[in-house]
Records
---
Amino acid sequence: MRTLLASSLLASSLLAACSAPIAQVAATNPSPRPLQPRAATDVQVFVSRRPVEAHVDVAIIRPAQVGAYGATLSEVVDAVRIEAAQLGCDGVVLDARDQIWGSCIVFAGAPAVAAPAVAAPAVAAPVAVAEGVATSTPVAAAPSAPVAVAPPPSRPASPPSVVLERVFAKLDRDHNGRLGPEELPKNASSLVHQIDTNGDGWVTRYELRTFNAALRTR
């Protein structure tokens, strides 16, 4: 685990001058089992809540925040998920109350496997009756079919507009209840165009909430 985290930190430092957003990793607790890198799509994402399954937090992932290196909200979220995949995390819990960061989690239970078939004990089945007494011959019952336990379904990352609503108060530096061109993330013009219903170039909290409410009903 420490070797994997050290490699991740080294890769992040080498890329600091030429790519964005950059994620920094800090180990927290030992993993309950050895970790292997996986595809980012295999990492479950939990936003401001934790899974019900037993799990261990093994690392904290701190990405570059919105606007750093020209990073958009979706790029920041993707950076956390990609870093979690490289560490071998089962999932990542995102928190955006102050700054966006993620906690790499590993489920405490072993990976789901198919249970081996076990032959049932022989059962006596009556085959003849003589003078009111049943005689029997041992007959082996059919083995039970193996049972496979499916892993929990992966949960997609939150849309950029939902993340934007969570960090609205932080981005609204003048506290006027709306985000101007200088406060909005760079490279978010297409998203702003969808949210800004009156076309004044500003995104109000009401416009953002209305947009996300309509998004949830689709």
---
Amino acid sequence: MADLSGNWSVNDGGAIYNLRLTQQGNRVAGVYDLQEGSINGIVEGNVFKLRWDQPHNKRGGHGELIIAADANTMTGTWSYDPAASGGLKGGGQWTFTKRR
């Protein structure tokens, strides 16, 4: 299993921001500097399934990322949880790149 712990750069198509992940077993948690957000999820094979929350602007949702073989990049999608985001729907693409 890939270790996702470390510092990442996240590109959501509209913004680029920093993310810090910590992994214990298959569980991963992290914080990012956009809207004081957090991520919690699990790694299943080469897939990182997560929940993201931004309490500062009352947004939240889900994501699913494919982990590259070298574990230095992850790409996938994110979506709003309408119940946690004031009824917002939709989503977008994510690219996570591990920082050295």
---
Amino acid sequence: MVLHTTRRSATRAYTLLEVTLVTALLSIVAAMATPAITTMYAHQRLDAAIDSVRGAWATARAKAVLEGRSYRFAVVVGKGNYRVAPDRDAYWGGEGSNGEDDSEGQGYIREGALPGGVAFAQPGGGGSPAPTSSNTALATGSVSPSEFTRFAVFQSDGTATEDVELVFQFKGTRPMVVHLRALTGAVTVRPQGATN
């Protein structure tokens, strides 16, 4: 005759106090990390916006040299839209200004938008307040060319007509200023209010 003995396994359970304590600690850590993550997110968006504008400037400069005519870079202040096109009335007059009437032939046109929540502001701090939502750009292609404000004109020799400062804003962060040197094309980035 064989006797079977049953073995009871002891399972460890957590008490309500232990679960509550771990939950409270996780909540505290999450609350401490949230501002750092939010700041990192904002800086990432600002960096992406600045990079897209630097790319548009490089394209405008290259097209001006390649085609032997001036190219304009313009923005919608208070929004996140920008446009690059030849510096001629056929491209900047109003609705339908797509250069079809350009005697030099159709030029390059690029319309773009900054990442959500980032907007252009007037240099010097005047003008529009920081955006309050992530919906800062109008639909690309829906903005009339006459709504854009000219910021830079790149000439056929690779220079710009003047030095340019462009301000980028994102809710809850310090605005960033991007400075373009007309003669060299060098670009510097600094927080608004900081000296060069």
